[in-house]
Specification:
- It is built from 28 helices and 20 strands.
- With about 775 residues, the chain is α+β, with helices and mostly antiparallel strands.
- A hairpin with a 3-residue loop joins β10 and β11.
- It is globular.
- The model has no long low-confidence stretch (mean pLDDT about 90).
Length: about 775
Amino acid sequence: MTRAWVPAAISLLVYTIITAIIGRDVLVHLGSTIANDPGDPLLTAAILKWNATHVPLTDAWYQFPIFYPTRDTLTFSEHLLGLSVIASPIYWLTGDVVITYNLVLLLTYPLCAIAMYALIFRLTGSAAGGFIAGLAFGFAPYRVSQLPHIQMLATFWAPLALLGLHAYLQSGRRRWLVLYGATWVLQGASNGYALVMFSVLIGLWTLWFVVLNRKWHALLMIGLASLVAIVPLAPVLYRYATVHSHFGFVRNYWEIRTFSADIAGLLCAPPALTFWGWVRVQCGPEGELFPGLALVLLTIVGVAGLAVRSSRSEAVQSGRLVMIARRVVLFIASVYAIVIAVLLVSGPFMFELGPLRVQASTFRKPVQIVTLTLILAVALSPGVRTVARRSRVIGFYVLAAIVTWALALGPMTTFMGSPGIPGPYHLLMSLPGVDSLRVPARFWLMTTICLSVVAGLVVAEFMRGRSRRVAAIAVVLVGIGILSDGWIDRIQAANLPPPVPGAAGLAGATLLEAPPDMVFRDIQTVFRAVQGGWRTVNGYSGWGPSYYQALVGAARAESDGMLTPFQQLGELHVLVGNDAQRLRALVERQPGVTRVTGDGSLTLYRLPRRQASALPRTAGERLRPRELSSACAPEFLANAMDGDEQSMWQCPLWDERQALTADLGEVRTVGSVVNNLGSSSWLYPGALAVATSEDGESWNVAWTGTVFDRTILAAMEDPKTLRIVLAFPPRQARFIRMRAASGGSDAPWTISELEVWSSSSESR
C-alpha cells in the first residue's frame, strides 16, 4: 500500500514546478525586481519588513512611518501578521525585503494548493481528488486578478481551518480544534477581509454540520476554541477600532456598491489569462469573477451525476411545503422569463387589467430574478436535496458557494451595471467590522474555496472503483483543463524605485517627496522610507488622514501650504524630481533652504523648522444669517445653515455667479467666518475671499488668500470635522460675501455649514 505522504509529496512537487514556470521572471531577478507591479506590492513588502524588525503589538509597531505626523498609521492598512509567520524568518535569513516579498508571493501558490489537497484527502482519502482540488484553488483564475494583493493570495490557512473542523467532528479529538483555532486566527491576521468573510463561511459551516445536527457539545467546543484563538488578536482589533473611530473611518454605501460584483462578472476574466483573457463582460473594479470553464463543468456534471445516482438508489419524499415552495419559485421564474421574451420581441411595454398594472422597460431586473429563482428551484429539487442529505459535505460546499457568490454581489445586486434587488450583503452591514470593508466582491475568494472543495469531492467520488489507468488519464485530463483556466504566461517582474540621493543621512529624519500623488509616487515613498529608516509626510494605504488630499492639492497649486504645516513640526527634508522645475523653484525660495545633494533625476533639500503659528479660532457670539443668496444652486442654500453637517450647498461654477452672500438682518460686529465642510474634507477649496458691507453697496475686503496650510492644520487637529476659519479684525457689517477658488480637483465649492462669528482668537 502506497504511503499517504508519497502522493502528497508528488503533488507538492508538481505545484512547485508550475509555480516556478509562471514565476520564472521573478525568480531570475529575485532581489532586483518586485512581482507584478511597483504599486501595492511595494506597500505590502514594506509592511512585511516592518513586522520583521519591530515587536508586534507594541506602541512602536503601530507607528508605521507614513503620513507624518499622524500616529498609529499601521492601522490604516493590513498588518499582515498571519503572513509574517512565513515572511519574517525569510527576511531574517536574507536581510532583503524584496527577496522576502517575492519568495512569499510565489510560496502562496504551492501552499494554497497543498493545504486544499490536505483538506480533500482528509475528507475522502483520495489523492486524485486532493490533487485536482489543489490545482483548482492554488491556480484559480481569481488569483490572477489579485496578484497585486499578496494578502488575498495568502489563503493557505483557510483549508487547514476547515480540515480541523471536519476532523474534530469525525474524531472528537480536541487537537483538531487547536489546528482550527490556530489557522483560523492566522488567516484572519493575514487578511482583514478574510477575518470577516472566512468567519462567515465558518458560521455557515457550523450551522450546517453542527447546529442542524443538534451537536450542542461540539458547538460549545468550537465556540470556546474560537474565543481562545481570537485572544492574541484582540488587542490589535481593539487598536484598529479605536483609531478608526478617532478618524471617522467609515465606508459609505455608494463606495461599497461601486466595489460590489455584477452578476455578469462571472463572464469577466483577468486579462492576463492566456486562454480566457478575452472574456471581459461587466468587470468593474475587482469584479473579475470568472471561475474557469473546466471547474464549472466539473461541478455541474459531478453534482448532476451524484443527484441522478442518488435519486435512483433512494426515493425522496418531498415535503408538501417544499413542493409548494418549489412550484411557486418556478412559477415566478416562468413569469419573468415571459417578460424577458416580450421585451426581446417587442421592447418596453405596459398594460393595465383593472387595478393590476404591469410594465417593463429593461430586461436586466427580470434576468436577475429568473437567475436567482432558478438557482433556488435547483436547490429545492429532489436530486439536489438527496445529494445534500446523503453527502452533506458536498451539499454544504455547493450551497456555500452560491451564498458567498450572492454576498459578493454587494448590498444591491446588479446585472450589466443596472441595479436590481437588494442582496444579502446588506444584512451583514450592520455587523461590527463589516462597515469598514470596501470590496464585497472579495467574497468570491470564499466561493473559490468552496468550488475547489466541490471539485475535489467530485473527482474523489468518480475515482471510486476505477482502475489506476483510468484514474491517471482522468486526473491528467481534468488537471489540464483546470490549470488551463487559470494559466498565465508569467508573473511580471517590475523594476524597483530608484534610490534616494543622500539616503544615508536621512535616517530618523522627516522627508516629503514632492509632489505627493496618492498613487505610485507615494507608494514608492513608503517603500523607501521603511527601507531607509526615516519618516515620510507622504503615505499610501487603505485609509488616509483627512488632510492628505489638501496636501496633494497644495502641491498641484505649487503653494507654500505644501511645506509650512510640516516645517512647524521640525526640520523638513524635501525630495523633488528634477523634471518638476516649478516645485523645485518653490522649495528653493523658502527661507533657510539648503540643497543637500542630488543625482540625475532627484534633488534633496533641507528646510529649517519654522515657528508655529496658532490656528485662528472663532470667538464671541455665533451670528445666524437671516438669509443666504447666490446665483449658483440657490435651491440648496438652506443646507448651509440647517445645522446638519451631512447636508451641503455645492457650487460647480468658478465665475461671478458663484458669490454667496449672507444677510444678518441688521448691522452686527463680525470677526470671523467659517467654511465648515463636516466630514467631506476632500471637497476643500484652494482659496477663499471674504468681503463685508453695511448696506450691500459698499464692500470692504475682510480676508483673502489661499487656505491650503490652514486646511491641513485644521484637519490634523480635528480629523472628523474640517472647519476652515477665516479671522479678520472685527468690523460692523450686515452683509458678508464669500468667493472661492478651486483646490485643484474637479470638486465644487462646498459648504456644509456656514458659520459667522462676532470675534476670533486673533482679535483678542
